[in-house]
């Protein structure tokens, strides 16, 4: 599982380096969003803004979202409009959860 998450982060970071800056600001690929979210969770763990329980819950949500994305890709390799909208909505919700958990003043002791 850990290898899969690290691979997702690596793919997201490499894709971000290849994309032109103007295009990257307007549109982020699913892999980039996954990489960014994973990095934000790990950064919160490293700096203590996420405690163990918060990090575990966020990682579980992230893993479930990665599984859903994988199952969408199995059905043809490309996302339909509805699948992409669903993933974007779920990524937005997870991103909001990461932000709120990192700033809730529950620090790791």
Main attributes?
109 residues; 79% helix; mainly alpha
Describe the structure.
- The structure is a single chain.
- By secondary structure, the chain is mainly α.
- It has one domain.
- It has 5 helices and no strands.
- The radius of gyration is 14 Å and the shape is elongated.
Layout of helices and strands, plus pairs?
Blueprint: H1 2-18, H2 21-26, H3 30-47, H4 52-74, H5 81-102
Helix pairs in contact: 1-3, 3-4, 3-5, 4-5
- What is the domain total for the residues? 1
Query: What is the 3D form?
Result: elongated
Structural class: mainly alpha
Q: Can you give the helix content as a percent range?
A: over 70%
Order of H and E elements: HHHHH
Number of helices: 5
Largest sheet: none
Summarize the structure.
With 109 residues, the chain is an all-alpha fold.
């Amino acid at each position: 599982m850990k290898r899969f998450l690290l691979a997702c982060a690596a793919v997201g970071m490499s894709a971000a380096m290849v994309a032109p800056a103007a295009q990257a600001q307007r549109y982020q690929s699913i892999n980039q969003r996954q990489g960014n979210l994973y990095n934000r969770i790990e950064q919160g763990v490293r700096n203590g803004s996420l405690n163990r329980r918060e990090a575990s819950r966020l990682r579980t949500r992230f893993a479930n979202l990665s599984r859903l994305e994988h199952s969408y890709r199995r059905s043809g390799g490309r996302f339909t409009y509805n699948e992409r909208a669903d993933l974007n909505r779920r990524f937005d919700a997870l991103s909001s959860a990461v932000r709120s958990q990192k700033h809730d003043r529950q620090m790791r002791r």
